[in-house]
Amino acid sequence: NLVMQLVKGSDVIVLSAIAGASLVTVYTLTSFVPQSVTDLVFMVISATMPGLGGLVGAGELDRAARVRNETMVVSWLVSVGAGATIIVWQPAFLAIWVGEKYDAGTLATVLICVMVTQLALVRVDSNVIDLTLRVRAKVLLGLFSALLGAGLGMLLAGPFDLGISGL
After folding, report:
1. Are 75 and 121 a contacting pair, CB within 8 Å?
2. CA 66 to chain centre
3. Tens-place pLDDT, residues 7-50
């Protein structure tokens, strides 16, 4: 859970340290809807995990692999469909909600949607790894990924001055 919180929260910490509170506000408002959709997708997909755990426990690994693949496809389809809708409607939504100045722009919105889609897929696989009881490798890889992501985010948002898109 700590590593997942690092993965999910390091972007805001890095951006606040590099670019300041005003850009964090724009980022947070732009990423609110995509992250909410991803959380909803994850909650729905999590409902399949007990059944998948039963397949793994019974040794039906081929069937479990098929269920995992179908879960990934559904997660990807819903995330991409929601992401496309968000990319189209996000500027209007933010203009009505808080004002146009809080829209990060199309490129940043597309990259945020790609990021949260990737996070949704990672979270599905994270649950699958939990079912197989190979938690140590998951935690170490997650920690490495969080640190690498934070380092690259600092580099691209800081010295390369790419702001939200660099993050």
Report:
1. yes
2. 23
3. 778 888 888 998 888 999 999 999 999 989 888 888 888 888 88
Buried b (16+ CB within 10 A) or exposed e, 130-141: ebeeeeeebbee
Please list the ranges in the chain whose pLDDT falls under 50: none
The 10 Å CB-count burial string (b at 16+, else e) for 77-93 is ebbeebbeebeeebbee
Spatial distance between the Cα atoms of 86 and 144, rounded to a whole number of angstroms: 30
Query: What is the pTM (predicted TM-score) of this model?
Result: 0.85
| Alpha-carbon dihedral sign for residues 3, 116, 28, 22 | positive
Name every residue whose Cβ is closer than 8 Å to that of residue 38 and which is 6 or more positions away in sequence: 79, 116, 117, 119, 120
Other beta carbons within 10 angstroms of residue 48's beta carbon come to: 17
Using alpha carbons, select from 123, 87, 110 the residue that is nearest to residue 8. 123
Tally the C-alpha atoms within 13 A of residue 55's C-alpha that lie toward its C-beta. Answer: 15
